[in-house]
Each structure stands twice: as structure tokens, then as C-alpha cells.
Amino acid sequence: MRVLKISRDQLKKWLDELSGTVDLYVPMPAGKQVHRFEPYTTFEELDLSYTRTVLPPKKFVFPPEEVLFNRAPSGETTVPDLPARDLVLFGVHPCDINGIRILDTFFSSFDKPDWYYQRRRARLRIVGLSCLPDEHCFCRSMDCDSAASGFDLFFHDIDPENQDRGEKVFFVSLGTVEGDIMLADRADTLPEAEPEELEALLEYTERRESAYTLDLDPSILPQAIKLHQADPLWDRLGEQCLACGVCSLGCPTCTCFNIRDTNDLEGGSSRVRNWDACLYRDFARVAGDHNFRPHRSERIQNRYYHKQVGFAEAFGKPSCVGCGRCIKLCPTGIHFVEVFQSLARERLPVDE
Ligand code: SF4
Ligand code: SF4
């Protein structure tokens, strides 16, 4: 893969130009230590050293709420259009790139791939950006700390703490032909990284590796969960959990949704899909008011089981990329990694 160099000034010029031809979203500060992907305004406003956004990029391909179709009083049915321009997400971290790849797998796995997801995905271009882990990240454990594919371009910032240095340079990997096209002929004019610069990139990667403070061995998790389905830990977690659903809503790989019909007073109606969460009390409630998982302990266990066992058995890998959002967002401090450490390290039968 070719690695090119682009200066901070060239990056600014490129984003300024790109924002005129596509819908460009970038990571922006939205409060103390809070970031969101927002439409690009000026280069000075975006934050290239952010750690994570509150909501993951999944909201662009699987929105929190989406009208599937409208039905007029005449009976005519229409599907809302999407904007004609491509949507470019700049600054997506490796865990979130891997999260979108998991969504791609899930939404194309039905007999008929999810058309609503596919059409949003088709207009999405992904520009990755390297990052440094904080105390909630465990993407390395989930093998999602780098992205071999799933991006059109990837920017490596080997000096993320220093954004204002005048001669600052980013290294750029080309992922797809679309990425090359996005650079608008610059790929031929940008210099390739010199061997000693690639060495510096490697050193940065090693520095990043050593910055992780959370560690987990995912290979033993399925066994740990299966063996300990009756463990009192689940009851304690059930007592602690508020069933607020935030861990699911903020998760880049959670895909539960609900569908409802709404009516207006003129006789029109809409079918709407919105995010749901398996932690909600009514998630497994069916006709006759029967609830398959009435207790919070059952619902939280189900979430962990699904992520590390159910999804992995169906698709060959767990549906967790180690982004740390559920850890950071949980209002009662339920810690994804500590739960598994408790199950896996202390409770697995010890080999004689
Ligand atoms: S389960 Fe938690 S750490 Fe894993 S991808 Fe979802 S939000 Fe991130
Ligand atoms: S964020 Fe925490 S309290 Fe809320 S549903 Fe998830 S585990 Fe329960």
C-alpha cells in the first residue's frame, strides 16, 4: 500500500475543496470531552486529536430514526430520497471502521440485504484517522486497533498531541480507487513517505501499542459465558443496571431496531424504523403480554451472550470492537471488560 505525505496546510485546502462537492462530516468538540461528527465548517473547528464521538458513525448508515415510506391518503406510497451528493466521514478511527464492517456483514446477511442500509452505505466514503487509546479503549484486544480495509483513505497522525506545529505532516494510505479520486489528482503530486519516515510511523505504532491499559483475551470469552450462565454475577449486574439502554444505543455494532406505523389526521401514514435496545424492559415482550426476558439480569446477560457468543457463532467474530463507549457511557459504572475479566479469569476452571 502506498503511503503519501500531506502537510497540515494541504490537508486544510483539500478539506475546504472537498466540502464543496460532498456532504463532509468531521469530528467536532461538543462540550467538555464530548465530540460529535458534524458538518465541516472550517478546518480550525475540527478536532483531529479526539478520542471517541458519543454516537458512533453507524448513525449515518443506520440512523436512530428513519422513515421507511410514507403513504398518502390517496394510497400512493413514496420512499424519502437521500441527498444526491456522497457523504464523506473524515476522521473515523480504526475501531469505528471495523464497526461499520460488522454492520456491513450483518445488514447483508439476510435473504434480501437491507435495502435502506445498502443505499446509505453506497454513498458513504470513509476517511480514517489514527488515534491514541484512553483508559476505556480495548480495541487491541478485539483485534480492531487497526483497519486493513474498510476505508477509502487513512490519515496517520504520528504527533497527535501537537496539532499546531507549523511543519506538521500526515501520512496517507490509499484504500480504494474512490479514495484516490477523492484526493482529486493530488495522489500523483504528493510525495511518498521516505524509509526513515516509515520508521517513525512504526515507532508511533509501537508507542500506541504500549498506551493500552485495558486487556482482554477474547478467545476464552464464549466459554466463560456459556459456563457461567447461572453465575450470581448476573443478578448483581441486574441490580446495578438501570435498563437505560445507553450502552446499546452508543455501540457501533448494536443493530436492534423497532418498526412502528404512525398516522396523521389527514389520513396519511408513515412506517418508521428506530433504534431499540435489548436492555429495555419491553424489548422481548410479545402478544399476550408475555415477556421472554422480564428481569434486568436476564437482559444484561443476553447482551453479553449475543455479542461474544451468538454473533460470533453466526458471523465468525464477536460484535464488539472494543471502542469503550459502553464503559464510558454507563451511568452506574458497569464495565464491559471487568465483567469478562471476572467471568474469565476468576471463574474458569483452573487447569491442573
Ligand atoms: S460492546 Fe461496548 S466496547 Fe464493544 S463495541 Fe459496543 S460500545 Fe464498544
Ligand atoms: S448503560 Fe449501564 S445502566 Fe444503562 S442499560 Fe447499559 S449496562 Fe444498564
Secondary structure topology:
Layout: E1 3-7, H1 8-18, E2 23-29, E3 35-39, H2 58-61, E4 65-71, E5 77-78, E6 87-92, H3 94-107, H4 115-122, E7 124-129, E8 153-156, E9 169-174, H5 177-182, H6 195-209, H7 221-227, H8 232-240, H9 246-249, E10 257-263, E11 269-275, E12 285-286, E13 290-291, H10 296-315, H11 325-329, H12 336-347
Parallel strand pairs: 2-6, 6-7, 7-8
Antiparallel strand pairs: 1-9, 2-3, 4-5, 4-11, 8-9, 10-11, 12-13
Helix pairs in contact: 7-10, 7-12, 8-10
User: Strand sequence of the main sheet, in spatial order?
Assistant: 1-9-8-7-6-2-3
Q: Could you say which small molecules are bound to this protein?
A: iron/sulfur cluster
Based on secondary structure, the structural category is: alpha+beta
Termini separation: 47 Å
Beta-strand content bin: 15-25%
Largest sheet: 7 strands, mixed
Number of DSSP strand runs: 13
Q: Give the oligomeric state.
A: single chain
Low-confidence regions: none
Number of helices: 12
**What is the CA-atom radius of gyration, in angstroms?**
22 Å
Question: Helix proportion of residues, in percent?
Answer: 25-40%
Q: What are the main properties of this structure?
A:
alpha+beta; four-stranded antiparallel β-sheet; 19% strand; binds iron/sulfur cluster
General description of the model:
The structure is a single chain. Helices cover 33% and strands 19% of the residues. The protein is of the alpha+beta class and 352 residues long. It has a seven-stranded mixed β-sheet. It binds iron/sulfur cluster (SF4) (2 copies). Residues 241-247, 279, 300, 329-332, 334 line the site of one iron/sulfur cluster.
